[in-house]
Design a protein that fits this description.
Number of strands: 18
Number of helices: 9
Structural class: alpha+beta
Radius of gyration: 27 Å
Order of helices and strands: EEHEEHHHEEEHEEHEEEEHHEEEHEE
Shape: elongated
Distance between the termini: 37 Å
Helix content: 25-40%
Strand content: 15-25%
Largest sheet: 10 strands, mixed
Length: 364
């Protein structure tokens, strides 16, 4: 039924992160801790409570007599460890740092799955310095002795995407044998997590090199009999088409789009494909079909169209979304049809395929 009638759903309750004052009454029946003191490096919180926070949960930087907390750590401790919060804390810090909401929300989001999340700040973890903003350890590991499982970056939803920067960052993080996650914060201060990975797109479909000389000669003969159409060219009255991974069978013939025609012509003339993305994908044994219905360039099959659904939706970097809101929309659409969204880019002389998929902190 239209208009939302019929099925009744209970709205999800949002966490509004209500902050209390530091009065004794606010902490009635709860542990009472001293109020953190602002210092040049951050907020000082004394032992013995500080030692427990640091040793068990990796919170704060250890200093003489306690720990130094940054803003997101202090808010987290206030909300979940009953640590008092100085009056007007958010307003005072927002004046100096307009990203404070994002840092607070991402820090809490990454910790809610039980992982140890530590911001890269105050010169901690110098070996991981770079573009990562946070490091994550799974609950089974020690943040003091093990390398992190995951590197994190965050962006506002309206922020522009620098695809060169993203490809480089993921490549560097994977070289450390770590995961690369990003978190997007929208205008309602909701956080959505994504995991970024490089995919090896491979298929089992027939390629040009799989054809015999006789099949190639037959294909060239048929191609020379093509008739131009609004969508490329048409080869009619076919009994058999030698290369099933190219062309779309319809009206007792085969339709070839411009990309397929260019690919065939390059093979016929030189026997070797160009360095375009289309050529690279087809030569990997994949079948490319229009992604028009899915808001992308191609839907890509690793087997015959009759035997499988397309696992990937591939978008060249040149036509990919330019801000994170657009990227999130593409990823959400792909997930809704059980496919993986992939951005393709010529990177360091080779085509690389970056997948982006929804991810929740603490997920295995």
């Amino acid at each position: 039924m239209g208009g939302g009638r019929g099925r009744v759903f209970k709205p999800r309750v949002r966490d509004l992160h209500s902050l209390t004052t530091n009065s004794i009454e606010s902490y009635k029946n709860k542990p009472t801790y001293p109020e953190p003191i602002f210092q040049e490096q951050g907020w000082f919180f004394p032992n013995p409570h500080a030692a427990r926070l640091h040793n068990k949960s990796g919170i704060g930087i250890k200093v003489a007599g306690g720990i130094i907390l940054n803003c997101e750590e202090l808010i987290f401790c206030h909300l979940h460890r009953h640590v008092p919060l100085p009056k007007d804390f958010i307003v005072d810090n927002l004046r100096d740092d307009q990203d404070i909401f994002a840092r607070i929300l991402v820090y809490e989001y990454t910790r809610k799955g039980g992982e140890i999340s530590i911001p890269i700040s105050h010169n901690r973890y110098s070996e991981y310095f770079g573009k990562s903003s946070m490091l994550l350890w799974s609950r089974e590991k020690s943040w003091q002795s093990d390398i992190p499982d995951t590197h994190v970056r965050w962006f506002w939803s309206e922020q522009s995407v620098d695809w060169e920067d993203i490809f480089l960052w993921v490549d560097e993080i994977h070289a450390l044998n770590c995961n690369a996650d990003i978190y997007i914060i929208d205008e309602e201060l909701e956080v959505t997590g994504y995991r970024l990975s490089f995919e090896d797109l491979r298929g089992v479909n027939q390629t040009w090199d799989d054809l015999s000389d006789l099949e190639k000669e037959n294909l060239i003969l048929l191609y020379n009999q093509r008739t131009e159409s609004k969508i490329g060219s048409f080869i009619g009255n076919l009994e058999s088409w030698p290369l099933k991974s190219i062309g779309y069978e319809h009206f007792s013939g085969v339709n070839l789009n411009p990309d397929e025609m260019n690919w065939l012509e390059s093979k016929i003339k030189s026997g070797d494909g160009r360095e375009s993305l289309f050529d690279n994908l087809v030569d990997r044994g994949l079948i490319l079909r229009s992604g028009f219905k899915y808001g992308c360039k191609w839907r890509v099959y690793n087997d015959t169209i009759q035997s499988c659904h397309a696992p990937w939706l591939v978008e060249p970097v040149e036509t990919s979304a330019t801000n994170w809101q657009g990227v999130c929309l593409s990823v959400r659409l792909a997930a809704g049809v059980h496919k993986l969204w992939v951005c393709a880019k010529l990177y360091s002389g080779n085509w690389k395929f970056l997948s982006i998929s929804r991810w929740t902190s603490g997920k295995k």
